[in-house]
Amino acid sequence: MATVPTSLQSFDEVVLPHLDAARRLARWLMRNEHDAEDALQEAALRAFRYFRTFSGGDGRAWFLSIVRNTCRAGRMRPIDAATDPFDEERHSSVRCKSDPEVLMHNNDAAALITRAMSHVPDRARELLVLREVEGLSYRELAQAMGLPMGTVMSRLSRAREAFRGAMTATLQQSGIPRRHILANERASPTTPA
Fold first, then answer.
1. Contact 2, 38 (CB under 8 A)
2. What per-residue confidence (pLDDT) applies to 133?
3. How many domains does the chain have?
4. Are 26 and 67 in contact (CB under 8 A)?
5. In CATH, what number is assigned to the domain containing residue 131?
6. Helix-helix angle 59-76:33-49, to 10 degrees
7. What are 36-56's pLDDT values in tens digits?
8. What is the pLDDT of residue 156?
9. Within this chain, do residues 115 and 42 fall inside the same structural domain, yes or no?
10. 181 lies in the same domain as 101
């Protein structure tokens, strides 16, 4: 959704509506909940500090590009120590009232997707997350990535192909026939979280 460049736009109006999308992007790119939260906080501070340079346009693409760049810079720093992220679902007292079998299949599918995505190159993963998870249009992707739209389209095609290859390899390593997964997806109306 494009925003109209006016001097009356505030940081809250431009950036805050996109915090959830930024958090999801940071989680995918950083691969660690704590690092993702740190990167998101740093990106929000950068966005606030340089908000005066925002010239209007799509606030979502502008903020997500800051998050992407912050995550990229964060990955270049040496990793201090490996930590296990807190699993909110495991430690939550609130239980979902959905069918346990459906939950199990959704969790399994989400785990397979996450494992496959870990084998996709960083730039391809960025594109896939922004397009398929966050739903950015090609125009928004071009703006967020700083690339021509044609380049975005061709890179996205290659990213999807890389994901298909990674998913096929992940399924083979897990001993799951690819046709079995596809059959379950067609039969289940819900999508993995």
1. no
2. 85
3. 2
4. yes
5. 1.10.10.10
6. 130
7. 999 999 999 999 988 888 888
8. 92
9. no
10. yes
Together in a domain, 118 and 177 = yes
Tell me, what's the pLDDT at 50? 86
User: Is position 6 within any domain?
Assistant: no
Q: What range does the domain containing 31 cover?
A: 11-76
Question: Three-state SS across the chain?
Answer: CCECCCCCCCHHHHCHHHHHHHHHHHHHHHCCHHHHHHHHHHHHHHHHHCHHHCCCECHHHHHHHHHHHHHHHHHHCCCCCCCCCCCHHHHCCCCCCCCHHHHHHHHHHHHHHHHHHCCCCHHHHHHHHHHHHCCCCHHHHHHHHCCCHHHHHHHHHHHHHHHHHHHHHHHHHHCCCHHHHHHHHHHCCCCCC
Least confident of 35-49, 50-64, 101-115: 101-115
Whether the predicted pLDDT of 145 surpasses 60 = yes
Which residues is 3 bridged to in the sheet? 57
Q: Are 32 and 100 within one domain?
A: no
Residue 3 dihedral angles phi and psi, to the nearest 5°: -105, 150
Q: Are residues 102 and 170 in the same domain?
A: yes
Q: In the predicted model, is pLDDT for residue 158 greater than 90?
A: yes
Radius of gyration of the chain (CA): 18
Average pLDDT of the segment spanning 136-147? 88
The answer to whether position 153 is within a domain reads: yes
